[in-house]
Structure formats: structure tokens, C-alpha cells
Design goal:
The complex is a heterodimer of chains A (about 375) and B (about 400). Chain A contains 17 helices and four strands. In chain A, α4 packs parallel to α6. Chain A starts with 6 loop residues before the first helix and ends with a helix. Chain B folds into three domains: about 35 residues; about 190 residues, Rossmann fold (3-Layer(aba) Sandwich); about 130 residues, Rossmann fold (3-Layer(aba) Sandwich). By secondary structure, chain B is an alpha/beta fold. Chains A and B meet through α1, α3 and α13 of A and α1, β3, α3, α4 and α6 of B.
């Protein structure tokens, strides 16, 4: 086959040759460097706080990716598991009821209770498919939020639980943003490693098979219900873990954190990143959570700094005001980015190869690629036989 | 051959792009002021509010009120210095998860004090971060009782704890022995209802707590329970729409003699229509937290200026947010220092002459009317008489 020339094709080849673990390491190095840059006063602390929240969303997106991306079960109430984790931590580590339980116990309890919730909601509902499952999980999400909203004796209702204690880990009190950042980052890395291994294991491949064709998968000896339940429970556990860390960091929890739109946001992150792709989930979450802030900073700081004070002053007042008040329009741009992405790159930012072929099955180039792959495969076999 | 060269070029390009990206991230962190006049100093005051999301209209009113104060006060003198005020306005979308990010951003910007947050929830999630940085915050609209006392929080609005106590006191004055309290499961209504219930229980009044959901239209289940309880008064701590419907359904169920009451959420002229006619709301009692606008010292001037700037009537809490900035300036004048720690210290004993009147803050950071306004009640009682709200004092 003749190699294509041109900058784009060359760049593609160049980046294609870099092994995937190198990208992962580069991303990790970038993530590790954020608090160091902040320490050195090279970036502002707000990026660190934004980083912590983004990492929590990365956990959530990776968790939802298990059930939605890998197994193909649309869960519209995912944030409920996050709520279970958050409230478990908030209730047992705040002056609200006077408990002050150890960090590790609460971490396990938050994860465990969320898994239990996943099991309870999964058992009766996993025989449903597609839209029906989506509706049931949506209902579950709302029930959970309303329960926390109305269970005033324990959760303080809509007022929420303030003044959550800082965690003590191995005798060290975690209270600086940098410390929280690394704490969450450690769990992100652990979960990412676990899920990457799981993805290529028998279980992970069985999930993919269930997603592609449930009947065919069950014919091949895959026990659909128990595997779907496992995926639901693991995904819920990750959300519970994220909830625990989030409550400790935020020090305040109320039911408005867990509204339906938050579930939708996490679904968007997974779809935008690429269904069934762990790097995709990470990229989707980081992008969707951090983008509004980048837009805000771009218009309120970087652009005026770049143009200089004199140029700014010479601009019409309306334009100046537009820059100053750009805050209000940033979500508009985020929405636009999502729309553009879905139209031009429906498979996501960093898609899973299987999923890309699925999405692009109408695209002649992709069809050709798939055919080529199968063809090569057949030819290889013929060679072996010969 | 060409491949290797291209790769080198690409690598260089990539490295340049990364450096550019990082350096643009760093941006400019210091202000180059202070070179001009020796005595002029620019101070940044943060406005932590919600300009998008469900409470955008409140956030807009707050922002406009503060801007008016900023235009008036900039260039004020304290000690041997002249201060220019620069407002840094940031939007938290009304989401508590966005609130800490906005807080950190304002701290990074180097603000000396912050006006906000708009709601109690967002105040709760931002307050620890401001506290850690030693930045005082003054909210003009976060009324929840459990927000005070915090080491760095003040408010120019009247807290639910004060209004709740006033509602409870009123019940006791009227000699009620059984009161049904209903909320709408919202942050504000539940907070207020909790305070009223606490005070009534302490006073030996029997209380029945019920709840509806904001947006509900049918309260027959709650009405049945309230009727069985046979209270002297039915109090709704949420907003007028649900209040009107509740009162109507109580009347229809045959509760003819019961007294209807509520907090400032029900004091609206629309309540009569919502209750299906003026007859159903005749005699309803309501309290309002804060000095009534007509008795505010600077209300007329403020209203004129606000309408000139925005072509709108002053929105909710515009004047309390305006006065939050006045209070900050007063604290700077008092201490002759714009250091956050000094502002924080001096806020506890300032005497502010604002739109609301003359006021200060008590030991908990709670609004306290002083001087010429001291005689004015900070809780005003209203009553519906012949279909219109009139003062009930």
C-alpha cells in the first residue's frame, strides 16, 4: 500500500507509532504537575480546585462508562450512587449527628453502600432494555434525591450538611487543595488501572458482547443478567467512592448537587469522550468540566492581557462589556462544542476502535477499513494453512 | 529521510505549542498600579453571585445594586490614601459545586472582601475557602439560620432565625395553642419553618409539621391531616402560589375560623387570585424580614438611580447588596487599611449609612439596625384587609 504524504497524514503516522502507555504517562505527568506548578506560583490556585472537581468527574465518567459504554445499559440516574456515597460520608463525618468516623471506614462504607444500591436497583430492573431501563434509572435517581431532601432528621433536608470534617489519613490531616488533588488523583489512577485490566478480561469482553448483541452473546454461553448486574454494581461503587472524596473536599452537601441534570452531564462526558473507552471517559470528563472555566478565563483575563490595556480601551464600550460579562455566555459555547462534536465526531474524542466502527458503519472509509482488516485476517490464515 | 526531518519539525512545533499553551495559562498575576499618584490605591472587591441559572434575576439585581454603590464610592479616602474600587464580578450558575471554584478565582484575583454568595447553599460551600484565605464575605440575600455564626460571614439581610422567631412570637401573642406549619421542601421554606417550630415548641405551643412540594396543586392529603389536628393557625413558609392554593383548600374543607399566616414569600398581591378570590385570604398575616422599603433612608434616591441605570424597578435584594459594599468601604475607612484581616476585624463594629438606613453587625455577623434606624423594626407585620396588604402594627 502506498503511504500517503502531506503534513496531516505524516502527523497521524507519527502519533500512531507512539505507544498508548506513553500517552497515558504523559497525561499522568501533566496531572501530577498541576499542584507543583501551583506551588511554584506559575498557575493560580483556581486551576487546582478546578482540577479536583474535574478528577471527581473523571471518576464518575469512568464509572458510568462501565455500565453505559462497556455494557450498553443507559443509566440516567447515575448521580444517585454519587449521592449515596456523599451522604454516607457527610452524615458520619460532620457535627450534624455528632459522628466522626475514620476516613478509611467511610471510604469503604460509601463505596459499599453505593454498590448495595446498585445491586438493589439492578436486580429488578436489568431485565428491561434500552429506553425502559433509562426511564427506571431516571426514576431511581429522582427518588434518591427526594429521599435525601425529605429525610430531614438525618440529612437536614434541603439545607444540606455543612462543616464536614477534613479526613485524617495515616495521621495526616488533608486540608490543602494540593493534598486533596493528589488524594483524588491516586484513586483515579487506581480505578483506571483496575478498569483497563477489567476491560481486556473475560468479563470486559463479555460486557462488550452483550452491548453489541445480547442474544448472540447469551448463545455463546454468557450469563447476561449476572454480568450486567456486576457491571451495574462496579459502576455504582466507583460513584460511591467519588461521592466520599467529593464530600470530604467540598465540606458541604445538599440535594441540589444531585439533580437530574448532573446525571445527564456525566452521560454527556461519556458520549463525548467515546463510549466504552477509558481514555475517552477521562478526556470527556476533563473537557466538559474544565471547558467553561477555560472560556471564562480566556475572555476575562488572557484576551485582555494579550491585547494590552491600550487596545482594550480603544475597543468600543459594548465589546469591552462583552469581555467583562462573558461569564454569562460561557455555557452557550459549551453547548455549541457538544453539538459540533456530535455532528463531526460522533464516535467521541478518544473512541474505542470497536465503538468507532459501530458508529461509522455507514461511512465508506470505515467499511473499507473493516473489510481490509477481515481480509488481511483471512489471508493470514490462508498463509498459515498453505 | 524526509520522514525523519518532518518528525523533527513536528516535534519542535509541538514543543512550541505546549510552551505557548503553558505560558498563556500563567497569564498576568500582578497589577502594575501604584506608580501614578502616591496616595491612590486600587482595591478589588469580589462579587460572588449567580448571573445564570434559576436565580439569574436575583443575581442581576444584586450586581446592579453593587455597581451603583461602586460608582458612588470609588475614589473614597481613608487615612492618607485614596482608594479606587474595582469590582470583580463572577457567576456561580447558582450551583453549589461551582461556588468553591468562583471563590478561589476571586481569591486568586486578590480581592480584599467579597459580596455574596447569593444563596445559602452557595454560601455554605464557598465560606470555608474564604475563611481559609481570611477574606470577609457579606451576603445581601443568604438568610438561612445556620449560616451564623461563622468567623468571616456577615449579612445585610435579616436571617431566617430572626424572622422565624418573630413569626413564633406573633403566634404566642395571639394566644394560639396549636399551629400547623407547612413548607414546600425548598431550602428557604424549610429553614424558616424549622426556626418557627423550634421557638413555638419552646413556648409550649403544639405544632404539626406538614410539607408539600413546590409546584404542587393538590394539598388534600395535608389539608386532611391539618383538619384532624384542628389548629388555631395554619402557617405556610414557602411562596405565595402554593400558599394561596393551600388556604383555598383549607377553606373549602370547612376550616372557617383558622388564622392563615406566612413569611415574606407569601406577601404578594397575586395571592388573592391564587387563592380563588379575596375572601379566602382576608385577614392573612405575613412578616417581612428587613426594614420596609418606604421607610428606608435612601430608598427613593436608590430607586431613581437604579431605574436610570437599568430601566427596571429595583430587583429583590438590590439594596441589601448595595449596602454590603458600603459596609466594606466603611470598614476600610475605620481601620484606614484595605487589608482583608483589618476589614474583617473592623466590620464587627462599623456604623454604616446605607440605603437601608443606619446599621451594623452584631457579634454573630447578623444585620443590626442602629442610629437613626434603631427605632425601626427589622421585622414588619402585614395583614390583608379588604383585599390589600396593610401594616398590622
Amino acid at each position: 500500500m502506498q503511504e500517503k504524504t502531506g503534513v496531516w497524514a505524516t502527523a497521524r503516522r507519527f502519533f500512531g507509532r507512539v505507544p498508548r502507555w506513553a500517552y497515558a504517562l504523559a497525561a499522568l505527568a501533566l496531572a501530577i504537575s498541576v499542584p507543583l506548578l501551583e506551588q511554584a506560583d506559575l498557575i493560580q490556585t483556581v486551576w487546582l480546585r478546578l482540577g479536583i472537581r474535574s478528577l471527581v468527574y473523571v471518576l464518575l465518567a469512568m464509572g458510568l462508562n462501565v455500565v453505559m459504554g462497556e455494557t450498553g445499559l443507559l443509566n440516567l440516574g447515575y448521580i444517585a450512587f454519587f449521592a449515596v456515597g456523599s451522604y454516607t460520608t457527610a452524615i458520619f463525618s460532620s457535627p450534624r449527628l455528632g459522628y466522626h468516623v475514620d476516613f478509611w471506614i467511610l471510604l469503604l462504607a460509601s463505596t459499599g453502600l453505593a454498590m448495595l444500591a446498585g445491586l438493589l436497583i439492578g436486580l429488578p430492573t436489568l431485565r428491561l432494555r434500552g429506553d425502559y431501563l433509562a426511564i427506571v434509572t431516571l426514576g431511581f435517581g429522582e427518588i434518591t434525591r427526594i429521599t435525601f431532601n425529605n429525610w430531614e432528621s438525618v440529612t437536614n433536608g434541603p439545607g444540606g450538611i455543612p462543616q464536614i470534617y477534613r479526613p485524617m489519613i495515616l495521621g495526616l490531616k488533608i486540608d490543602k487543595p494540593g493534598e486533596f488533588y493528589y488524594l483524588v488523583l491516586i484513586f483515579v489512577v487506581l480505578v483506571a488501572i483496575m478498569l483497563t485490566n477489567l476491560k481486556s478480561s473475560r468479563v470486559g469482553r463479555a460486557w462488550n458482547a452483550l452491548r453489541e448483541d445480547e442474544i448472540a452473546a447469551e448463545h455463546s454461553g454468557i450469563h447476561g443478567t449476572s454480568l450486567k448486574l456486576l457491571s451495574m454494581v462496579i459502576s455504582a461503587g466507583i460513584a460511591g467512592l467519588a461521592g466520599c472524596l467529593f464530600a470530604y473536599y467540598q465540606q458541604f452537601i445538599n440535594p441540589t448537587y444531585f439533580e437530574f441534570l448532573q446525571s445527564v452531564l456525566v452521560v454527556c462526558m461519556v458520549v463525548l469522550g467515546g463510549m466504552g473507552s477509558i481514555p475517552g471517559a477521562i478526556a470527556g470528563a476533563a473537557l466538559l468540566d474544565a471547558l467553561p472555566e477555560f472560556i471564562r478565563q480566556a475572555f476575562s483575563r488572557w484576551l485582555p492581557d494579550l491585547l494590552g490595556e491600550q487596545t482594550m480601551d480603544s475597543l468600543p464600550v459594548a465589546v469591552q462589556n462583552f469581555f467583562i460579562e462573558f461569564d454569562r455566555y460561557r455555557m452557550l459555547i459549551v453547548g455549541l462544542v457538544i453539538v459540533v462534536m456530535v455532528i463531526f465526531r460522533p464516535e467521541g474524542i478518544l473512541p474505542d476502535s470497536l465503538w468507532r466502527r459501530e458508529v461509522r458503519e455507514e461511512d465508506p472509509r470505515e467499511v473499507e477499513k473493516t473489510r481490509q482488516k477481515l481480509f488481511d485476517f483471512d489471508e493470514g490464515h490462508q498463509d498459515l494453512e498453505a | 529521510m524526509t520522514n525523519t526531518r518532518l518528525r523533527t519539525i513536528l516535534a519542535v512545533l509541538l514543543a512550541t505549542a505546549m510552551i505557548a499553551a503553558v505560558s498563556s495559562l500563567i497569564g498576568c498575576t500582578t497589577d502594575g498600579d501604584g506608580d501614578g499618584e502616591k496616595t491612590t490605591e486600587t482595591i478589588k472587591v469580589g462579587v460572588h453571585t449567580s448571573l445564570t441559572g434559576g436565580l439569574a434575576d436575583y443575581g442581576f439585581a444584586a450586581q446592579e445594586g453593587i455597581k451603583l454603590a461602586g460608582d458612588d464610592l470609588t475614589g473614597f479616602e481613608a487615612g492618607d490614601k485614596k482608594y479606587e474600587i474595582e469590582l470583580v464580578i463572577k457567576d456561580d450558575k447558582g450551583e453549589p459545586a461551582e461556588s468553591p471554584i468562583v471563590a478561589q478565582q476571586l481569591i486568586d484575583e486578590g480581592v480584599v472582601a467579597v459580596i455574596g454568595a447569593l444563596t445559602s447553599g452557595n454560601t455554605n460551600s464557598a465560606q470555608p475557602i474564604y475563611a481559609e484565605a481570611g477574606i470577609p464575605m457579606i451576603s445581601g440575600s443568604a438568610t438561612r439560620a445556620d449560616l451564623v455564626p461563622r468567623e468571616n460571614f456577615f449579612r445585610t439581610c435579616v436571617g431566617d432565625n430572626i424572622q422565624g422567631k418573630a413569626l413564633a412570637d406573633w403566634c404566642v401573642e395571639l394566644g394560639f395553642e396549636k399551629v400547623a406549619i407547612m413548607d414546600d421542601r425548598g431550602d428557604y421554606a424549610v429553614g424558616l419553618a424549622d426556626v418557627v417550630e423550634g421557638h413555638l415548641t419552646d413556648a409550649g405551643v403544639e405544632v404539626l409539621r406538614e410539607a408539600g412540594q413546590e409546584g404542587d396543586t393538590d394539598f388534600s392529603a395535608q389539608v386532611a391531616k391539618i383538619q384532624a389536628f384542628a389548629p388555631d393557625a395554619v402557617m405556610f413558609t414557602g411562596y405565595h402560589r402554593e400558599a394561596g392554593l393551600l388556604y383555598k383548600q383549607c377553606r373549602e374543607a370547612g376550616m372557617a375560623d383558622v388564622q392563615f399566616m406566612g413569611g415574606d414569600g407569601i406577601k404578594s398581591d397575586e395571592i388573592a387570585d391564587e387563592a380563588g378570590g379575596a375572601a379566602n385570604v382576608e385577614g392573612v398575616l405575613a412578616t417581612i424580614g428587613g426594614i420596609p422599603q418606604d421607610s428606608m433612608a435612601g430608598w427613593e434616591d436608590f430607586k431613581t438611580a437604579y431605574m436610570e441605570a437599568t430601566d427596571k424597578e429595583p430587583g429583590p435584594y438590590a439594596e441589601t447588596n448595595h449596602d454590603a459594599l458600603v459596609a466594606i468601604v466603611e470598614a476600610i475607612k475605620k481601620g484606614e487599611s484595605a487589608d482583608p484581616a483589618d476589614i474583617l476585624k473592623n466590620l464587627s463594629d462599623v456604623e454604616v449609612n446605607g440605603v437601608i438606613g443606619t446599621f451594623g453587625f452584631d457579634a454573630n455577623g447578623e444585620f443590626e439596625a442602629m442610629g437613626g434606624s434603631a427605632g425601626l423594626a427589622t421585622i414588619v407585620r402585614y395583614k390583608i384587609e379588604n383585599g390589600a396588604w396593610v401594616s398590622a402594627d
